[in-house]
Please model this.
Amino acid sequence: MVKVCVLGASGGIGQPLSLLLKLNPYVSDLALYDISDITAGVAKDLSHINTNSDSEGYNKDEDFKNLLEGSELVIVTAGIPRKPGMTRDDLFKINAKIIQNLTVKYAKFAPVHCKLLIISNPVNSLIPVVIETLKINGRLNPSQVFGITMLDIIRSQTFLNDLLNDKKLRSGSITSKQFDKTLNLNNINVIGGHSAPTMVPILTNKNLIHQQDEIDALYKKIKFGGDEIVKAKNGKGSATLSMAYAGYFFANEILKKINCKGVNLNDCTPVNLPSFVYLPNLPNGKLLQALLNDYSGIHDLNLEYFSVPVVINPHTGNIKSLDISILQNRNALSESELKDIKAACVNLAKDIKTGEDFVKKNY
Ligand code: NAI
Model:
């Protein structure tokens, strides 16, 4: 039973994420923080649900000690979301300051084993803000910091399932009642970063789809899935419910590991989750950096961040290693995937520098 904090808990993602966490059997304390004055009300609202956890709302600077003390997991959804026509980078100036401040509080008050999950955008530049801030505060443990790119995988798998189910339905091999909508983390990969120029859907290596027009349509849908939601919500919000689910899915996998300690062995099996992580000091991190140099064609690029599936330590919930098999098997990638990885590396280098420069200038 663990304490989980949500920072940004009164927002579009924060509220449904907090609801899902309130239903989670591993959570004993749900500590909610947001600058919004409805936060105590959100916590009160959740407290009327008859699950075995307490929920407490906080919204003042002096609350951070109580909020973060004893936490196992801190999930950050604080910051502004995209409006139509905005890129994730446009958010940076506002969100970087927010994330920097929250990281300082985490470094000061959260226990040393506490994991930090960042949902706020732009992930590609905010994770470097977090890492640089942790370095300055003497609290860096890269195996505990996760940039959440899970939604890219969840929506990719959903779109892939739709395509495969539709094909089977048209061929008459299944009825609509036999649709398979399960999430199979081994079916599909999206690597690189969390923005259209850095996101690389890997669609061809599993031989699940062959027709080029289908690959192209799926590729576009995955890359611009986030924009589709912003447009459908008439510019009044971005992905919130699906993001809350994706963030919850990720958090739950870590909660299962923290809690397993011999109780439920099924919950202890290692699982690969996609995450945008800081590579130096992580097992296989240096190897991945060398591979990315090769893919980019830039010998001294030395990218320090990338999103790949990470293997979670079945006891601590920290990152145990990186699953870099996709990048090690170059022959299984298509020409356009290779081109995309190269472009992603170059664009990521700029995004990462944006985050690092911000901390240099603002400390
Ligand atoms: P929202 O505007 O509905 O909620 C954000 C919340 O953060 C608000 O309640 C606001 O009061 C709070 N907040 C602002 N400054 C704060 C501070 N200093 N401390 C604590 N709370 C603070 O936005 P929404 O839709 O919930 O999105 C949150 C973030 O998640 C955005 O940056 C968005 O771009 C990002 N996002 C990330 C995705 C991903 O795949 N990683 C997918 C979708 C959104």
Q: What stands out?
A: The pocket of NAI is lined by residues 7-8, 10-14, 33-36, 77-82, 91, 95, 98, 119-121, 123, 148, 151, 194, 237-240, 243 (CB under 6 Å). The CA atoms of residues 260 and 266 lie 9 Å apart. The mean pLDDT is 93.
